[in-house]
Specification:
alpha+beta, 3 helices, 42% helix, 4-stranded mixed beta sheet, Translation Initiation Factor IF3
């Protein structure tokens, strides 16, 4: 068998496999612990839209200055978001601290075609 022909067929198989694979896109929404109720609802609408499009959503809550001492406020905001989008998303990564920010990742419940 011709080696060049073999390499060509292998590359064609790899290209075909790439065509059929789905890419996961992670969209991000940033908040602060003192974000007001209306603004929080607005961000929830964005997260809901991301999930309905079939993308994952990362909700990041950034603490500045002395806000870091009141982590329960941030945890409460993330929990509230999780409750609001329960019908369209599943929490993939529970709220977790990373430096001065707390984040969680939400995946869509069912795959959108």
């Amino acid at each position: 068998m011709d080696y060049g022909k073999f390499k060509y067929q292998q590359s064609k198989k790899q290209q075909e496999a790439k065509k059929k694979q789905a890419q996961v896109i992670v969209k991000e929404v940033k908040l602060r612990p003192k974000t007001d109720d209306h603004d929080l609802e607005f961000k929830v609408k964005h997260v809901r839209r991301f999930l309905e499009e079939g993308n994952k959503a990362r909700v990041t809550l950034v603490f500045r200055g002395r806000e870091i001492t009141h982590m329960e406020l941030g945890k409460g905001a993330l929990d509230r978001i999780a409750d609001d989008i329960q019908d369209v998303g599943i929490i993939e990564v529970r709220p977790k601290m990373e430096g001065r920010s707390m984040f969680m990742i939400i995946a869509p419940k069912n795959k959108v075609k």
